[in-house]
Amino acid sequence: MKHILLYSDDPGEGGLAQYEHALVCQLKNLGYQVSNAHGKPLNTKIEREQELGIHQVNLGFTSGQDFTRTLKDLDGAENILKQAKPDLIVFSDGWPFSTFAAKQTALQLGISYVIILGFINAECANFSYGDGVDYTDAVSHHYTQAKALVAVSHENADLIHQIHRIPQNKIQIIHYGRPAQYFEPPNLSIRQKSRQQLGLPEGAIACLTSARLAPVKGHQYLLEAIQQLKQTEVWEKLYFLWAGTGTGDRYSNIESQLKETVRKLGVTDRVKFLGQRSDVPDLLTASDIFVFPSKAEGMPLSVMEAMAKGLPVIASAVSGIPEELGDTGKLLPDPNHDPQGTVRELADTLQAWAADTDLRTSMGKACQQRAIKMFKEERMLTEHIAVIEKALSDDAKTRLIQSY
């Protein structure tokens, strides 16, 4: 029985952790011995993995808590890898510099690995830790030595090629996918119950945003759009549901600032801070529009989930979002280059969609059809398992040749 070790220093609060959970469970169901090395707190997903017999390895940190260990803790990584003795490591990376020391160690120990990269942007080319190490060049070496390198979007693959000089034909592109519960038909009783619990009045147009309360997620642009929408006829119907919390330091956690801005705008009755939620499918069922004006993403699961549920989606044209939405929904100008355009088109689109039920419905159906075609979890898992099994097969052939 081959032993596969998934290794991730991700904080475990977003889409990457959901992908990792689905992958290790599928590997276990297929009969592999599976270990999951992470720095996440114990939660229901990890409890489920333990029930399946997936061995849990606590790194003792996440990249958000102690990035120095991500880059420098060779001893810790060596202890974990020597104890685990995996046949293959799957590095699940939130950005190119994730699990850096662990990859260095895997190379030193001669352990084969594949890399699944969840996010990269142009700024990664300029990364420096101020210690004289050329991390970008080192990451390029990690990628070159990997048995497989997977990107979540064509845009991300292009950046890997540009920044790390990896040939395009060496980068595989596998879009994320979501489980069946997101594709289930809308349940009217759940919608009514959820809207009642959320305090939404009859006829309200609920606009959901599911994301961390961090500057990169773009809530500030939505607040500027809200300020404009207050002057329109549709304002009396608009309500905004924000699922997610602030995490990290004062630079990445702006929950208190957002709440203060909402108070100053006088819209505390219209913008509802819902905190971290485990009932996102029900929130989507309760909602009418999904809004996601983010500044940087890989291939956001929240957009896929909204599409799968048949919601019309408004999202910024950054990273993998344009190929995610395609010609469905509404793509906003990139807020990194035209923030005022982002706000203006966000306000205009919300005004138009709030006023036209038929338009919302047709947009939502188009989003859903694209999600059904492209973003099923079964397809994602099948493609990732194929990558892993090929890596195991290639590694076995290489070792056989070396033995002669």
Overview of the structural elements:
Strand 12, helix 13 and strand 13 form a beta-alpha-beta unit. The model has no long low-confidence stretch (mean pLDDT 95). The chain is 46% helix and 15% strand. The radius of gyration is 22 Å and the shape is globular. The protein is built from 16 helices and 13 strands. The chain has 404 residues and is an alpha/beta fold. The chain folds into 2 domains: 3-177 and 377-403, 3-Layer(aba) Sandwich (Rossmann fold); 180-374, Glycogen Phosphorylase B (Rossmann fold, 3-Layer(aba) Sandwich), CATH 3.40.50.2000. It has a 7-stranded parallel β-sheet with strand order 3-2-1-4-5-6-7, sandwiched between helices. Strands 10-9-8-11-12-13 form a 6-stranded parallel β-sheet, with helices on both faces. It starts with a strand and ends with a helix. It has helices spanning 15-29, 44-52, 67-72, 74-84, 100-109, 135-145, 154-164, 188-197, 219-229, 255-265, 280-286, 301-308, 321-325, 339-355, 357-374, 377-403; strands at residues 3-7, 33-38, 55-58, 88-93, 113-117, 148-151, 171-173, 205-210, 238-243, 271-275, 289-292, 313-316, 330-332.
